[in-house]
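@channel sequence for tomorrow's demo:
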Amino acid sequence: MEITEKQREKIRILQQDEINELITYRKLAKIIKDEHNQEVLLRIADEEQKHYDIWKKYTGESVKPDQFRVNLYFWLSKIFGITFGVRLMELGEEAAQEAYKEILDEIPEAAKVLREEEEHEDELLEMLDEEALRYAGSVVLGLNDALVELTGALAGLTFAFQNTRVIALAGLITGISASFSMAASEYLSTKSEEGEQDPVRSAIYTGITYIITVFILVMPYLLSSNFYISLSWTIVNAIIIIALFNYYISVAKGYNFRRRFLEMAGISLGVAVFSFALGSLIRTWLGVDL
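structure tokens (generated this afternoon):
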């Protein structure tokens, strides 16, 4: 069928996206040791190849992959996990979505390709199996507890002690002790459930996440002598951790970022404010002066 030059330009955008994704999936499949994930990626690549061939019929030309985008998503997948990198690549197709809107009624195959993009690839992406995401619950547990408990504890200790070194000492002791406690609790909880998750791995993910969060939150008290600046810095660190983690999970698992971020940040900051006020009251009540 005859198409206008404007339609050809829109189809060329779609063709470019298909070849970019096709090459990215095949590059990732070559470095993956897990045969299941390798097969999934190759199947998605085959889908992209079919779509590329459809659009090529309309443009009448071959399109070279955008090496910058291919390498960007390849390395993001390698560093942060295949599911995250691949889903981020799929989310970053605003130009393609606009192109689909422009040609949906005029090009017969457009509706079919769009449906396959939304259904088939999403189904295949759900089949990807990554250890980091399988144990995401343990990471969430360690992160949530560390953020809520330690942010609150540090806020309370800040007004109670008003000495950054003493606050850092108390925070590290409290945090590290709590991390071992949480890891042990996660081990026993996972073991009692008799599910697919390994109790030892669950405990390790929970404990390591907790300890890393502890050091990030306590660090300002080791670098600054002003306890108000340290507390503000700690709260900023907590918000950044919450934002980064929830963005990662929202992309990798398809969750609502805004709702999860606001909920988690609200709980952590709410506990911090309450603990800060509690520290002030207890300090006054006990007459502590350090």
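heads up for whoever presents: The chain has a mean pLDDT of 78.
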